[in-house]
Amino acid sequence: MKQIIHLLSLSFVTATFLLVACTKPNNKRTPDTSNNPGINTSPPPTSQARVKIPAYTLFAELRSTPQVYCITAGIPQTVTGTKGTILRFYPNSFKYANGNIVTDGTVCIELVEMLTPGAMIANMATTQTTDNQLLQSGGQVYINATKNGEKLYANKYGIAYPQPAASTAPMDLYYGNRNNEDSIVFWRPLDPATAGGAGTTAAGTTTVDTISNIYLFDYCTNFTYINCDKFYNYPEPKTNIYFIMPDSTFNKDNTSIFFILNEINSVSSVNNVSYNKVNNSFNLRDLKVPVGFNMSVLTLCKKSNGKFYFSEQTGLTITDAMSINIPMTEHTMDYIKTRLSEL
User: Rounded to whole angstroms, how far apart are CA atoms 87 and 202?
Assistant: First the structure.
C-alpha cells in the first residue's frame, strides 16, 4: 500500500491567485461529503434534557477560519497556503456533480491547514483510523471547492505538505471520516483495490523533496479532509491508559481528551463512550498505545454555565496500564487558542 518514494525537485506552474478577505468561520461549515458518504451531515442537536451535545459543538470556537483563494478553471494554477501547503491544479482538476469537467470560470478554494498537533486538536481531528490504528502524520488539510456557490468535485490535482525537516518515511493519503458520535475526524483505512477513491491512497507518485522538505502527491481525487500519513506498525508492547477526572462534573457530555505521541507527530482522542461514572475516568478502550513513548495530554471541558476548563500535561512516559490524574483549571477561550497555536 505504500507509495514509491523518489527524489524530485518542486516545479509548480506559478499562477496569480486572490486571497479573499471575507471567509466564513470553519465552525459553521457544512462537512464535505464528496465521495465520502460516511460523513454525518445531520445538524447538531440543541441543548435539551437528556440530549447529548457532541463535543465539536462545545468547542466550535476553536476551529480555524478557512483561507479562501479564487482561481480560474481550465488552466494550470498553484495555490500556496499560509502554512506552506501547496495545491497544484491542472486544466481538468474540477468537475461538476454530473462528472463534466469545469473548463472555465472562477473557482473558490477553501483551505484549512492542520500541520501541527495543536491545529489538529483545535479542529477536532486525530491521526488515527476508524479501526483504531495509529498513524504517523505529515500534516492534514481540509479542502472545498465551489463555483458561483455550487459545490465542485475533484477530478485530480496535486498536493504538497511542508515538513519541518527532510524525511524519507513513506507516506500515503488518507481521507477523513466524521461518522462518529462526537464528529471528531478519523481516517479511513487504505484500500488498494479502490485506489483514488474515498478513503484510499492516491494513485500516482509520492515524492519527498529533501531540499524543500515536502511530501508531494501528484494525483489526489477528493476535496475533503486529507491526511498525509503512514501506518505506524510498532513493535513495542501496547497498553491502555486511564484518565482520572477530578470529579463527576467533568464527564463524557462536556469533556474531550487528546493525547500527542511526540515521536511520531500523532494525535489521538480518548473515546467518550469509555467514560466510567463510578470512578470519573476515561480510558482508550480499543485503542492501544506503545509503552515507553513520550506523551502529552490535553483535556478540554465546557460546562453548562459556559465556562471553559483546560489541562495540559507534557513529558509523560507511557507505562503499562498507566493511570493519569487530570487536574482541570478554568481558562478563557483565548488562552486555550493561544496554547494550541503554540504546540
Answer: 15
**pLDDT tens, residue by residue, 303-339:** 988 899 999 999 999 999 999 999 999 999 999 999 9
CA distance 269 to 100: 39
* Cell 463512550 -> residue: 273
**Residue 24, Ramachandran bin (φ over 0: left; ψ between -120 and 50: alpha; else beta):** beta
**CB-CB contact of 54 with 86 (8 Å):** no
Q: What whole-number distance in Å separates Cα of residue 269 and Cα of residue 316?
A: 16
Domain boundaries in the chain? 5-231, 238-341
Tell me the DSSP string of 186-240.
EEPPP-GGGTTSTTSPPSS-EEEETTTTEEEEEEE---SEEEEEEE----S-EE-
**Looking at the domain that runs over 238-341, which CATH code has it been given?**
2.60.40
Convert the pLDDT of each residue in 165-198 to its tens digit. Answer: 777 777 888 888 665 444 678 787 665 543 332 2
In this predicted structure, the answer to whether residue 142 has a pLDDT above a threshold of 90 is yes
